[in-house]
């Protein structure tokens, strides 16, 4: 007999004479009640064991963490808390779990402890919920772009280009560390390396995606990206997933419209399909907020916050306006910011972004038209010659969730910018070709997938929304 998922059993509208179920024991109470979970849904199914007619040997092996296969009937529950339960007639222990050693005890563990046990943490309600929401969000992303006729492009993971020009790249090499081949000047001779040139793990698929947008019109990438930035924060990973749409003939306004519509769509999608998980996460966050002093508590619950994003337009504010707001803000005047905003041109730190979103506008914000100096080379220069058509989307509790821009489509302007930055044009010959042959206005953005998952799940550390986080000094599993 094929086993049925716990989710389907709990959704049943009638009793069933014969069912089979497989899963992991969460708890075993009074030698009688197994709370069984199989990952299909946050809820456990209660399985009632006829302990008087079950060998002592078997009962002893029903421990937290053990894998079991149960047969019996789905009956209306006598007890509180569930409509249906399984009256067990046959028990098979598939895999024992030593209760003395199994780390996921039925009690509250710290998130740090769970990170150290990332291979087992999805045995908890919390991580089951987070990872199901992550999965649904990831599908929603494809659904959104596919419905709109975008082409999904798999951009390379190993590349020779530094898309962001920030130099935070992991090198890819097959050269030996000892006896490294050297040029006459004593530099590493990459001609001898696997690819015959210097290569790295991609920091963004944008440049390659641009070439596809300039032929297929609307494209998106969704894949892993890598940054060797030594930022040990709750918002940064060394390996994270990024969604990058790129659209020919879109200007910055159309780019903002797309980003806003896209984010609202995927959040709505998850809200409709992850009701139980989000309800659980909403309650978890509420309980956590209660521990905080009153003035630090967030004004909205998780579900309220998600609903708010669906119902309200993102505020669109120029960098220049934002600087004025920040300069005149209380924390700036009282020197409460770590970085005091003194003049136009300053790069915004996450404390400033969060002030704008959480204190000033109390809404998601799209900042645009940043100083050219603090943004990447490919962004389109405005007529003022000092700002570029950049946009960052800032979210409450998250800070920057999206970075994007209208791209510089004019060959001569792009060449000048590249030269000014000391980038070798030869390295980007293929990128420059899109401006040589049939160039046109185009725009795109990158959304950090884990930051989206953070927002939707209400978690506060990015290490808790990706299965096996990679961060400085940590690549376990
Ligand atoms: O702002 P970024 O660096 O933009 C780009 O890479 C562009 N090429 C995107 C584009 O226009 N196609 O990164 C985009 C987003 C950020 O807004 C942030 O959400 C996320 O990627 N991000 C990170 N997420 C986790 N860990 C990190 N270290 C991240 N760095 C950026
Ligand atoms: Mg950015």
UniProtKB/TrEMBL annotation:
GO terms for cellular component: cytoplasm. It comes from the Bacteria. NCBIfam families: asnS, PRK03932.1. The keyword Lipid metabolism does not apply. Residues 131-467 form the Aminoacyl-transfer RNA synthetases class-II family profile domain. This is Asparagine--tRNA ligase. Its main location: cytoplasm. One of its GO terms (biological process) is asparaginyl-tRNA aminoacylation. It catalyses: tRNA(Asn) + L-asparagine + ATP = L-asparaginyl-tRNA(Asn) + AMP + diphosphate + H(+). It comes from Flavobacterium beibuense. PANTHER family: ASPARAGINE--TRNA LIGASE, MITOCHONDRIAL-RELATED, ASPARTYL/LYSYL-TRNA SYNTHETASE. GO terms for molecular function: asparagine-tRNA ligase activity; ATP binding; nucleic acid binding. Homodimer. Keywords: Aminoacyl-tRNA synthetase, ATP-binding, Cytoplasm, Ligase, Nucleotide-binding, Protein biosynthesis. It is found in: Cytoplasm. InterPro entries: Aa-tRNA-synt_II, aa-tRNA-synth_II, aa-tRNA-synth_II/BPL/LPL, Asn-tRNA-ligase, Asp/Asn-tRNA-synth_IIb, NA-bd_OB-fold, NA-bd_OB_tRNA. It is an enzyme of class 6 (ligase). Belongs to the class-II aminoacyl-tRNA synthetase family. Its EC number is 6.1.1.22.
